[in-house]
């Protein structure tokens, strides 16, 4: 039995559809946790409010209600900010992962179709993928020389 990650499974992780699914999963989990927090906070405030309703003066209950309302608005603003940050992060991460994969896949397709003149030029911040791009460019040059030598 082979140890390590199956190459087909690893490539599936780099597919655009998978990246979108992972992004959606992170956002759904985040919203789920935020919803659970909101539900817990609401139930805690409601229980506390019921407990105090029979014994506390009206002015105290009014002040407590205002604080609960402020809490809801601030929590909502924090949730919206959090979702915006998570969406930005997930989109940037997906772009960072998929950006170099697209030209590499195009190069492989070009080589498969006999276009030995194709070359890859990655962005400067795609350094982790540069050795693979260099190898593919070298392979293209070797195939081009072999084609010219025939």
Write up what this structure looks like.
With 150 residues, the protein is mostly helical. The chain is 79% helix and 0% strand. Helix 2 (16-53) packs antiparallel against helix 3 (58-98) and helix 4 packs parallel to helix 5 (130-149). The longest helix is centred in the middle third of the chain and has 41 residues, at 58-98. The model has no long low-confidence stretch (mean pLDDT 81).
Provide tags for this entry.
150 residues, mainly alpha
Radius of gyration: 28 Å
Helix content: over 70%
**Tally of strands:** 0
SSE topology string: HHHHH
Q: What is the strand content?
A: under 5%
N-to-C span: 42 Å
| Category by helix and strand content | mainly alpha
Chain oligomer state = single chain
| Mean residue pLDDT | 81
Q: What general form does the structure show?
A: rod-shaped
Largest sheet, in brief, is: none
Are there runs of 5+ residues with pLDDT below 50, and where?
Answer: none
- Counting DSSP H or I runs of 4 or more residues, the number of helices is 5
